[in-house]
Structures are given as structure tokens and as C-alpha cells.
Amino acid sequence: MTVISGFSKLDRRQRIKFLAEHSKMQASDCFRIYDFDAPEEQQGVFEQMIENYIGNFPIPMGLVTNMVLNGESLTVPYVTEESSVVAAASKASKFWASRGGFTAVVTSMTKKGQVHFTWNGNQKIITELFPEIRKKLIQATDVITEKMRKRGGGIKEIQLINKTNDLPYYYHIDVSFETADAMGANFINSCIETFASVLVNLPELNTEENHIEIIMSILSNYTPDCKVNCHVECPVEDLAGWDKKLTGLAFARKFKHAVDIANLDISRAVTNNKGIFNGIDAVMLASGNDCRAVSASAHAYASRGGSYKGLTSIYLFDNVFRYELELPLAVGTVGGITRIHPMVKKAMAMMNFPDAKKLMMIAAASGLANNFSAIASLVTTGIQAGHMRMHLTNVLSQLNASQVERETVIHHFMDRAVSYAAVEKLIMEIRNNR
Ligand code: MEV
Fold first, then answer.
1. Is residue 54 part of a domain?
2. In terms of domains, do 78 and 205 share one?
3. Are residues 171 and 37 located together in one domain of the fold?
4. The whole model's pTM is what?
5. What is the per-residue pLDDT for 434?
6. What is the distance of C-alpha 380 from the center of its chain?
7. Which residues fall within 8 angstroms of residue 34, CB to CB, at 6 or more apart?
8. 90 close to ligand 1 (CB < 6 Angstrom)
9. How far is 409 from 394, CA to CA, in rounded Å?
10. Which run of H or of E encompasses 93?
11. Residue 67, burial from CB neighbour count under 10 angstroms (0-12, 13-18, 19+)
């Protein structure tokens, strides 16, 4: 195996040439990557965004319509590769728009960073010294936190956690932060790295016999104290509108069963939560947020009781159907790429420039919309009818269908079950009869 050095020093054209020489792709095909370039001014932004850049990778953006959130009507940009996701969220949003819409509230906005270290001295001493050390840590980050404090954020709490029973000499310092409208990763990491440099230089903890060794300083992506709650609610009979064959009560009962199953069976719980993330990830991508961080946190939250469960809860009492999603969602509307990426800037404008709290609520409502739509389909028609109908256009693209073929096939499958094999068969018939 050859180890490549200096690749990042090559210019873009040289990198693509390298690709042509070291892959099975034709050079002409490699250079077609340029076909996806943006206009000059935006192209420059993309080229600076990551290391070893070769080109852009477009993913469609669509609009979820009729989302009523806390009484406000919104059009929400989704970025997703899955064909049925926008349609599913729009269908649920429209359904709920005439039934009170989505109601959301952000219950907390605190995030955490940690300094992990070992200290080989007497546990009692470090515990007793810690109130004084805390003051020094805060003082050392005064300059870093100044702007954030003016925006209402900053360091909220610093705790020493003694973990020496789990791992010899191991402690961590847990630091709680409020980061206003920023996701705050850089801010948090800067603060705790400063804490680390203070700790290793404290004469009271670093003597001839005892010393602090910093293992690492990093924010935690687990954010159970940065949480949003979103629900929909209506009288049970109002649910009758979803499916012609079921009464509101019959629909609600089946729906409740589906939610209960996600709470007791991990295989179903993961799929249920994936459906929630169909909506959340689409909003995270559109708004330039870190969907990996948000997913990691939510999936850990789903297991907080010791077993992995669905993130939604259902209440079916006194003729009322209430369906709720609660999850951690650490997002930012300033910082990162939110004010740099040209399409993210447009997405923010489409949502009327939400602050972090509002974006948390929009994302939660989107997650609930997608999940409601998925479960409502699963317990009535099944998922494939709608899913494959939306996927039909992808299948047609795969089969290089002409415009005439597309129209014929779409018309043919208006009232028939769609499958790849059936579409392929029909296309072949059309082509053979030409
Ligand atoms: C497909 O992307 C998502 C679903 O599987 C979610 C679910 O089963 O709840 C339909």
C-alpha cells in the first residue's frame, strides 16, 4: 500500500488528476466534477470549507408546507436524499394545521464541557481546594467569555467529579455553559482547554510528589439539559380525517399500539427514531447544523433509562389524543457555517431567521411531523404505497426513461402498486413496442 503525503498541498485540478490516475474512473469523468461548481463567488466559499476539496455534492432541498408551530404558519426547508420525506412531513403538517398545529417549548439550553485528568494526591485535598480553584478557572476565561456573557451566556457551573473509584486517580471537571444562539462547540472547547492549562500550572496540585496529568478537554455532545418538547393534540374523533376506513378511535388505538411497541422493542424503537430524524436531519442540514452531534445526543437520550426506547410518548385519555416528542437538540443560528454557506443563508431567510430556541422548535416539530406521518401510514395503508410512489421518479431516472416514457409509466402506476421490477417491465414493453 502506498502512503500518500502532501495531498492537501496539491491544487484542486492536481487532486482530481490524482483521482483519475489512482482510480478506475476515466479522466474525463473525473473532471466532470466541475459540472457541479457553483457561481464563482459561492464556489470560493465551498473550496475553503474543507481539506482536500475536489467538488460539490448536491442534495435536493424541498419545502415542507403548512407547518403551524405555536400559532405561526411556517414553510420549512428540508435537505434530504430520501424521496418521500418532504411529502410525509407536509402531509402531517397539513393534517395538524387545522387541528391546532404543533406546540413546542424549549425547556433548557445548557451544554457541557469536560476536562478529564488524573491526580495522584490525596482526594480530600483536591476537594477542599476546589472552591478556590474554581475562582481561578473562571478568572482565566474572563476574556474568552466576555462577549458571550453580554449575550446572556457563559459559564454557569463548574463541578469536580471524583471518579477514582472507577479508574485510579481519575477526575473530571464538568462545566455547564449557556451559549445563546451559538451551538457553542468552539467556545466551550476554548474555555475548557484554558481550564486545563490552569490546572497543570497550579502549584497547590503540582508538587514534587503529586501532579495533574490532563488526559483531554472536550465538550460533551450529550446535551440532556438542552432540550425541546413538541406536541400535537386533538379530540380523538378529529383523527378520522387521516384514513377513510378507520374511525378516529380505531386509528388512535392502532397508533398508540405502534408507539407502545417502540417503547418496548429496540428493533422497532430504532426505526421509529430514525423516522423522527428524517425530519430533524433535513432541517439540520438545511440550517448548516451538525446533524451527527444532534443524532448522537438524541440516541443516547433514548437509552437514558437503561434500554433504548422511542423518543415519542402518547396519551389517550378522556377522548383526547396527545402525541409528544421530547429530545435534546443543541443547535446554532450563528457561528459555524450558518452565516457562510450560501444555501444555509437562504434556508435561514426562508425560516425568517430563527434564533437557536426557535430552530430547536422547528426541528422538533419536523421530527414529530415525519414520525406522525410514518406511523399513521404504517398502521393504515402501509409504508410502501406512498414511499414507492415517491420513489418512482428515481426508478425512472435509473432506467434513463424519456419524457414520454415517464408520463406513460406515471399514468400507469396511478392506481397500481409500484415496484422496481414492475416499472422496469413496463419500460421494456414500451421500448419493444416502439
Ligand atoms: C423511513 O425512512 C422511515 C420509517 O421507517 C420510519 C418508521 O418506520 O417509523 C417509515
1. no
2. no
3. no
4. 0.92
5. 77
6. 28
7. 55
8. no
9. 12
10. helix 85-97
11. buried
